[in-house]
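So, could you explain this one?
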Amino acid sequence: MICKDKTDLKLGDETCTIFLNTICTRKTVPEGLSKLFRYISNMECCDDDLFISELHERVRELNTAERRKVLHTLEDKINERYRAGFSEGKDAGFSEGEEEKTKETALAMISEGLEVDLISRVTGLSREEIEILK
């Protein structure tokens, strides 16, 4: 895995991704993979293949309504946390931006030679905050 923005940066997540074209012509399927490809494509189970039979049984065990409900609940919780975090970050960004704009306004007023009391009333900054900006 690599970073899209910096392709020379390896992510080092130790994953291995394998792409399978399970709908390719039967002639091009590697010898040992034809049963697996058929299973992936249309859940065709081969009783004479122990691996495919065990795979099918495991899929049946995991593919239950109860498990799907748990996964959907987990997905909902993740999405809820994402939305909350996004909202919190957005609010913090707006707050930070307002603070910066207030300071810029105060600096402009200082450069115009306006009195500290007036700057304080207009911007809401304390006298001490304005003195620091000078």
